[in-house]
Amino acid sequence: MSPARTTAGAPISSIGRGIAVLGCFNERRRALTLSELSEKSLLPMSSTHRVVAELVAGGFLVRGSDRRYRIGTRVWSIGQLAPVSDQLRHRALPTLARLYEETGENITLAVLDRGQALYVDRIGGERSVHTASRAGGHLPLHTTGVGKVLLAWQSPEAIEKYLSRPLTRTTPYSIVDPVKLKTELVETKNRGYAIARQESTAGNGSVAVPILRGGRCVAAVGVVAHLTHMDIPRLVEVLQQASDSIRKELEDDH
Amino acid sequence: MSPARTTAGAPISSIGRGIAVLGCFNERRRALTLSELSEKSLLPMSSTHRVVAELVAGGFLVRGSDRRYRIGTRVWSIGQLAPVSDQLRHRALPTLARLYEETGENITLAVLDRGQALYVDRIGGERSVHTASRAGGHLPLHTTGVGKVLLAWQSPEAIEKYLSRPLTRTTPYSIVDPVKLKTELVETKNRGYAIARQESTAGNGSVAVPILRGGRCVAAVGVVAHLTHMDIPRLVEVLQQASDSIRKELEDDH
DNA sequence: ATGAAGGTTCCAATGACCGGAACATTACTC
DNA sequence: GAGTAATGTTCCGGTCATTGGAACCTTCAT
C-alpha cells in the first residue's frame, strides 16, 4: 500500500491532512458531507472518515443533524486569540466606525494572508453598496483597493512571484496583464494609495491606503463605493487620517 | 520506545496532538515558546517541535520575532465559518446593540462549549462596569448568569455530571456546594431567568435568560452590572424581549 | 422492493511517527 | 566576553499508528 503523498511525491503528515480537511470549508461551503470532504481534500474516503472523526473528537468539526460537517466552535474560540483579531481588529474598530460615519460607505480592513487579501473587518450598512468582501473572507490581491495596497508594499521579489502566476479575472475590468499590473503597483506605491474601478464587482470602485509600521505594510484600510459616488481626493484624505489613527493605536502599548 | 499515550493508556493520534498544542493557547497565554508548549501539551520537546513545525507550515501557528508562537491568521479565518459566528453572532448583534442602548450595561451572549460558558459576544462601553468575559473567552457555568442558564436547561443527567465534579470558587460568593447549586438551577429554570451576585467578579451581578429553539437552550443573553444598579424586574423584561427577538432572527431563514 | 449513493468498519502491510540522545543556538551571569 | 544554563533543532533506528482497498451497512429516492 503506498503511503499518502502529494502529487509532487512528498509525503503528507497527519496534521497536514487534518488542516487540509479544515481547509475545504469556505464562505460558500460551510456545511460539507464526508464525500465532499473526501473529494476536496483528495483523501480516500476511509482516510477522510478517520481524520474527520479525530477532528470531531477534538471539537474542531461538528456533525449536524443533516449529516453534514461544520467548523466547530472551538476553532472560532481559538481563532479569537490570533493577533489579527486580538490586536489589529479591536484597536482599529473605533476608527473604522468613525470612517463609516464620515463616508456612509463600506469600510474594509484587510491583511495579507497566503497570497490573498484577508478581510479582517467590514463595516457597512444599508446605505452602502453590496460588496463581495466579508470578515474572514479572502479576495485576490490584484482586483481590490486593499489588495493592491498590500501587494504594492511587498518586496520586489514577492511582487514578481505574484505576477509570475496567472492572474484571475473576476470582472471584465480586472487587470490580468502582469506588465500593466506592475505599472499599476508602482503608481500605487508612489502616490500612496490604490484605486480599483469595477475590477472586483461591477459598478463598484474602491480606494485604499496602507497602515505602515516600521516601513512594513501591516494592513490596508479601504472604502468601497459606487463608482459614481466616489470623491477620490476626499476619500484619500479621510483614509490617511484613519490610517494614522490606527497606526497610533497599534503603537500605544506593546 | 513506547508510543504516545495518555495517562489512561489510550494512544493519542497525530491530529489529537496538533489540537492539544493549539489548545495550549488561551486569553492569558497568547504567545508561547516551544518549551512552554511542550510542557503544557505534555509532549516531548522533539515531538512538540515537529508538530509545531507542521502547524506553522499549515498556517495554524506563526512564529514571531520574539521566538514565540501565536495562533495563525488562518485559524481565525476558518473559525469565522463556525455556526456560532456565522449564524448566532451576526444575527444577534443588532438586538444586543439595542439591549445595550436600553440598559447602558455590558451585554453578553454565550453558548455552552465543552462544559463552560463560551462568550460569543460582548457589547459594552465606558459607561458599563468592567467584566471578566470576553468574546472567545470561557467562564465556569456556575458563577455567571448566562452560565447558570446554559446549565439549568441541560438534561438532568448532564447537570448531575457537572455537579459531580468539584466546582471552582472564583469569588467568596461563588456557589460551590452541589446541593445549593442544584436548588439554584431548579429555581432558575422555574422562574425563567438566572441571577448571579458577585459570584464571578466582586461588586458585579448579572441577570440572564435563555434563547430557546425547539425546547433546547441554544444560547443565553445576559446583562452584567454593578449590583447596586440592578433593577432586576426591568432587566428580565428587556432580556426576554431580546431573547424573543433573537429567536425570531434565527428562525427567519433556515 | 430495488438500486445507487453515501457512510462505516475491517484488516494486513508498512513507512511515518516516535522520542531519546546528541548537537546547536540563544540568553543569561558574572 | 568567557562560561554556563536554558532553549531549540537535528538525527536516527525501532515500532506501532496510520493507511487505503475492500467489504459491509445505512439512507434515500424511485
Report on the structure:
Two copies of one chain form a homodimer. Chain A is an alpha+beta fold and 254 residues long. The first copy, chain A, folds into two domains: 14-78, Winged helix-like DNA-binding domain superfamily/Winged helix DNA-binding domain (Arc Repressor Mutant, subunit A, Orthogonal Bundle); 83-252, Beta-Lactamase (2-Layer Sandwich), CATH 3.30.450. In chain A, 43% of the residues lie in helices and 19% in strands. Chain A has nine helices and eight strands. Chain A has helices at 14-22, 34-41, 45-57, 73-79, 83-103, 145-152, 156-164, 178-191, 232-252, and strands spanning 61-63, 69-71, 106-113, 116-123, 138-139, 194-197, 204-213, 216-226. A six-stranded antiparallel beta sheet of chain A has the order 5-4-3-8-7-6, with helices on both faces. Chain A has a two-stranded antiparallel ribbon with strand order 1-2. In chain A, a hairpin with a 5-residue loop joins β1 and β2. In chain A, α1 packs across α3 (45-57), α5 (83-103) runs antiparallel to α9 and α6 (145-152) packs across α8. The longest helix of chain A is centred in the middle third of the chain and has 21 residues, at 83-103. Chain A is globular. The termini of chain A are far apart. The model of chain A is unreliable at 1-10 (pLDDT under 50). At the A-B interface, α1, α3, α4 and α5 of A face α1, α3, α4 and α5 of B. Chain A binds a DNA duplex (30 and 30 nucleotides) through α3.
